[in-house]
Amino acid sequence: MRHSIPLLEAFGGGGYWDEPGPGELTKVGFAANGHTDNTAVVTYLTWRCTELAVQRHKPFMRIYPSLVSAVRNQPSTDISVANIMGGPADWVFVLFDDKYVPGDLDVAKVRAQLLPRMKAEGAAP
Questions:
Q1: Eight-class DSSP state of 22
Q2: Max Cα-Cα span within the chain
Q3: Do residues 26 and 93 make contact, with C-beta atoms less than 8 angstroms apart?
């Protein structure tokens, strides 16, 4: 599923994507244009993960920067951003949980931390 952010569209492209699998994981990505810094990419990508958690009524989530880290159950919020086609982009694997498991992020707390920046960028209600 593809989604876009109006601010990025104004500069020529970018947006979210997500796809199921493997297993219970969801692969979530975000691509921006060359006018977007890496911190914004991490913010937007993490925000999209929280949106999916809210849609699924899951209060917790684990972010894995790679499939290998998911297999090893090594969640991390240390997301490295690559430069793809002239713009920063990255993807992660996310596991959504009903109950807290060590390594989980509290979705409500993450959203509260990110909301001011998302609003400032015109990317959140």
A1: S
A2: 40
A3: yes
Cβ neighbourhood burial of 96 (10 Å; 0-12, 13-18, 19+): buried
Report the alpha-carbon distance of residue 22 to residue 92 in Å, rounded.
12
Helix 107-120 to helix 38-55 angle (10° resolution) is 130
Residues 104-120 pLDDT 10s:
999 999 999 999 988 88
Distance CA 113, CA 111 (A): 5
**pTM across the whole model:** 0.83
Residues 58 and 95: their CA atoms lie apart, in Å, by 10
Structure tokens at 100: 């807290």
User: CA-to-CA distance for 47 and 116, rounded, in angstroms?
Assistant: 12
Give the span between the Cα atoms of 50 and 45, in whole angstroms. 9
